[in-house]
Design a protein that fits this description.
alpha+beta; single chain; 15 strands; 5-stranded mixed β-sheet
């Protein structure tokens, strides 16, 4: 494998790598005071490469947050109308990418090799494929019902079955539909609330996308590796592989070919033990100081080892940890301040009382100027509350940081 070619630097500092990563993820543009329109929303998702979907709704469903972190105020209804509504003009489709995700619709052919592998029992939850192998007639009947009757949710099937088994309490109709979804036999027609409604791809996706040639597994993996590298800006092999959940051997081969073709450069980064891959088209900002609250599922921080390497920030989800064992809280958002993650904030939207609850504020060790950071956090919380149409902010007292934040918030502050 060749190293960085002519015109491409072979070494980067840790601070340069951090700025490259922020820029590649869309944090290089100053957020506008005016609400962003759909073209900006679409562009933000395309720059990320995918938008991970999740049902966690303590604050707001978390897939709305990465767009807000990058753009500021935007109407969440625009995402609903363009991505989840029946009959909408499709520019995104749903599939398993990093996790369940919205993806640019032109990428659909790149995932067909994964759909085939799912049909072959590779790269799919073992229980789902085992169910399909043990119940082929039921799966075939489920597909035939959708072919005959049109879009159906799992609960609308003629024989949805009882809830049982280890798969998130799914009933057999849901398992069959998810197998069909994995294998590309059905896709998401629209969502009702957050419930997925399934239909045949030819009744949902544009014909010109479905008619495109199917790339080989090697070609599909190579292009997804390139897109993963582009979304990172600069990254290790493991980070690129994780972005679209690519197999190890295919990723290594793809990176070798991309470097040989000059699409990527193999470089070193100060403090990184592993070699890195740099997208030569990425800018290296001399200065980049974004401030934003980050969703736990934001792709900027989704690979935890990368987050530690780039931001010196150890972060783990505590959703499924018993309350008395949590270190920070249930829905904890890292606070990116002037290009560094300097705090984490446990948040909850209390719609009944019209309050944004700040249940905990935890500055990172080593933050030199706590006061300016808390002032910036207060401003972010005001903007977040306004975007969520929540009139008040309430801070749980009892720590130095929480009491100081409450004082900065002033009339919007208070205690829970």
């Amino acid at each position: 494998m060749t190293k960085a070619g002519s015109g491409v630097r072979a070494e980067f500092s840790a601070s340069e790598a951090r700025r490259i990563a922020l820029s590649a993820q869309g944090f290089g543009v100053r957020r506008s005071e005016a609400p962003s329109r759909w073209p900006q929303v679409e562009a933000a998702i395309r720059q990320m490469g995918f938008l991970q979907l999740d049902s966690v709704n303590v604050l707001v469903r978390s897939h709305y947050l990465p767009i807000y972190s990058r753009l500021g105020f935007y109407p969440a209804s625009s995402l609903d109308a363009r991505a989840f509504a029946a009959g909408s003009k499709r520019v995104f489709f749903e599939y398993w990418a990093h996790e369940a995700s919205l993806l640019p619709i032109e990428l659909q052919p790149l995932f067909r090799w994964r759909m085939q592998r799912a049909q072959d029992g590779l790269g799919i939850y073992g229980g789902v494929h085992r169910f399909a192998s043990e119940n082929p007639a039921y799966v075939a009947a489920t597909l035939a019902e959708i072919e005959r009757n049109g879009a159906r949710s799992a609960s609308e099937l003629d024989d949805p079955g009882k809830r049982n088994g280890p798969w998130w309490g799914w009933h057999k109709g849901k398992i069959a539909l998810e197998y069909l979804f994995w294998t590309g036999k059905v896709t998401t027609a629209f969502r009702r609330g957050f419930e997925r409604v399934y239909d045949l791809p030819e009744r949902v996706l544009p014909a010109e996308v479905l008619q495109r040639p199917t790339p080989s597994a090697a070609d599909g993996a190579r292009e997804l590796a390139r897109l993963g590298a582009k979304a990172h800006g600069i990254a290790t092999e493991a980070e690129i592989r994780d972005y679209f959940r690519l197999p190890v051997a295919e990723t290594r081969q793809a990176l070798t070919e991309l470097v040989e073709a000059g699409r990527l450069a193999q470089v070193t980064v100060e403090g990184w033990r592993q070699p890195a891959y740099f997208d030569p088209e990425q800018p290296v900002p001399a200065r980049l100081l974004p401030t934003a609250l980050l969703s736990p599922f934001d792709p900027l921080i989704s690979y935890r080892e990368r987050t530690e390497r780039i931001f010196d920030f150890h972060y783990r989800l505590e959703f499924y940890t018993p309350g008395h064992k949590r270190n920070f809280g249930y829905f904890v958002m890292p606070f990116l301040h002037r290009g560094r993650i300097e705090a984490r904030v446990d948040l909850k939207a209390d719609r009944k009382t019209g309050r944004l609850l700040v249940l905990g504020v935890f500055p990172e060790e080593g933050v030199r100027q706590i006061g300016p950071m808390l002032e910036a956090l207060a401003e972010e919380l005001r903007h977040l509350a306004a975007w969520l149409s929540i009139p008040a902010i309430a801070v749980t007292p009892g720590t130095v940081a929480a009491d100081a934040l409450s004082a900065v918030l002033g009339d919007l502050g208070g205690s829970t």
